[in-house]
Amino acid sequence: MGKKIFTLVAVFIVCLSFMLVGEESFAVEKSVKVRLPKFNVTINENKIDNLYRKYPLLVYKNMTYFPMTWYDCRLLGLETKWTQDEGFKIIQSKVTSSYVAYKTKHKNRNSYNATIPTFKITANGNSIDNSKEEYPLLSFNNVTYFPLTWEFAHDTFGWEYVWDKSKGLMIKSNNPQAKTVNLPKYAGENDVAVFNGYYYFVETVNKTNKVYRVKDSNIYNKELVYSYEIDTSYGFNNSLTFYKADKTLWFYYHSGGAVMGSDVYCKVNNNGKARIEESGYLDFKNTLKGKLDIGQGPSQSGNNLWLTPTGQERKNGKSIGNPNLIYGCHLEGTGYNPNGSTTVVNDDIYILASTYPIKDSEQNYIYKINLNTNETIKVTNFGVENFKIANNTIYYVKDEDQYLYSSNLDGTNEKRLSDNKLSGYYDRYYEVDGNVYYTVSDKDENLKLYKVDTAKEDTLVLKEYLENIKIENNKIICTLLSGEDYGIKVFDKSGDLNLAITDQVSDSFVDGDKILITSGSDKSIKLVELKSN
């Protein structure tokens, strides 16, 4: 009896094992033969070198397959997500990337084995039964590959899809592209700019800085914009910074030491030549009555506001405002920081000012000075760290509590805007077509971006930390800290994502819908043109 029970149990175990083997074999991924393409493949004008690529394009059943790597996906405007429950998702997104070659030193074979994955797959929300597809998705080298069929490329993702006997397969997606700009290798070692169809860059030759511009990155027709001898009295400092003001391209550089030296400001004229407009430690603004200079040298004192009539030399100018006030600086104890808040509205100047000597109590107030009458009016009865004016509204951060406020130009109708304190030196705020944004820094000076919401709690716009922010054409261009998944994220005026760029960034310049990027990895220069709304 005991042997019979043992025999029955043994038979049951054998049968069960066959059942389990059957279920496992059903889930095993089928192996298929694939080969490298024998024709050219061009993706977004990037010719693919499959012979030495870690993730080469493949051919299965005479269909070309594309690797879904991190950068390859984003090059085509796609993102992928994997979860155990939902499987593999392919999503068309607002992303882009420079082309990454994934180049190796090892030459690929002509053919390999790939497998047909059995996990769940969706593309733009549409479920794909991979077991029934004529051209199923494949898995090779631990990367999922999808077929460049007309149905996938054209119908699902809306790409241009062209086959040419001599040129091979050409695919072009409709997301903005990060294209390499044909500038000299040394261009990325200093500042670069794009402005009105020209690229601007700097070449350092011995102790001379030469500023050039080229049209359409044609480096063989470079034009000299400006040159100057680098002051080496206090070390070798060849850095130069481009910026825009009053719809014009400017740049500045420093000459000499920290105390005895000066900042030199140059304006680029329409003919592509630059000249010195100002030098010293100062801020300056154009007004209807002439040029306004705000002295901000190391030894500050009152009466530091100077107006020079248009077209005349500075010696023909005059001091304006209250001579007992020190203008344009945020005073802290016995120190000061140049403020840069000065704003001209018609014939009125709005400016930060403090009573002089510094020990007096009324510090960092906003004043209004009329250019016609020289009448000086106090706008606020409290100190502010800085202020901005947009659409007849003043925005400012109070010294006393470090929250962001707004008021009318005369200081009335004050409203507190921010839920968070803007306590750090790097904290900024921005008005974008009626929407207000601000940054908050932590103890390590890492920035987070918030959007003001007067009806409820302020909105955290993105989870990543920021390096800096630029506003252009009602878009918010955020450079993220090095090491984040993306290098730049662009938001529209409402705070919705417009584009995410994978490239890590050491610097950037924005002009209209063009973002010029200096790569954080190799200092190469890339251009991304945003799509206008």
Automatic annotation (TrEMBL):
<dbReference type="InterPro" id="IPR032485">
    <property type="entry name" value="LRP1-like_beta_prop"/>
</dbReference>
<feature type="domain" description="Prolow-density lipoprotein receptor-related protein 1-like beta-propeller">
    <location>
        <begin position="358"/>
        <end position="476"/>
    </location>
</feature>
<dbReference type="Pfam" id="PF16472">
    <property type="entry name" value="DUF5050"/>
</dbReference>
<protein>
    <submittedName>
        <fullName>DUF5050 domain-containing protein</fullName>
    </submittedName>
</protein>
